[in-house]
Amino acid sequence: MKIAEIKEMTTSDLVERVEAEVANYNQMVLNHSISPLDNPAQIKQLRRTIARMKTVLRERELNNK
């Protein structure tokens, strides 16, 4: 997911999406520890997407103060 797409989302949608992606990430890491994923680079990509979303949320929080 690109940063432009993330910035277009509303704050409430973004919060829900972060929670869903974190749950997905945790499940993916657990599955990878049991049996290797076909593409382990997905874990890295998902972690960075979560970081981008959290960064946008933090920017919005600081701009509202």
Automatic annotation (TrEMBL):
Cellular component terms (Gene Ontology): ribonucleoprotein complex; ribosome
One Pfam family hit: Ribosomal_L29
Transmembrane segments: none
PROSITE patterns linked to this entry: RIBOSOMAL_L29 (PS00579)
GO biological process: translation
InterPro entries to which the protein is assigned, alphabetical: Ribosomal_uL29, Ribosomal_uL29_CS, Ribosomal_uL29_sf
A GO molecular-function annotation: structural constituent of ribosome
SUPFAM superfamilies referenced in this protein's UniProt entry, alphabetically: Ribosomal protein L29 (L29p)
Keywords for this protein: Ribonucleoprotein, Ribosomal protein
UniProt record similarity statement: Belongs to the universal ribosomal protein uL29 family.
Protein name in UniProt: Large ribosomal subunit protein uL29
Protein source organism: Bacteroides fluxus YIT 12057
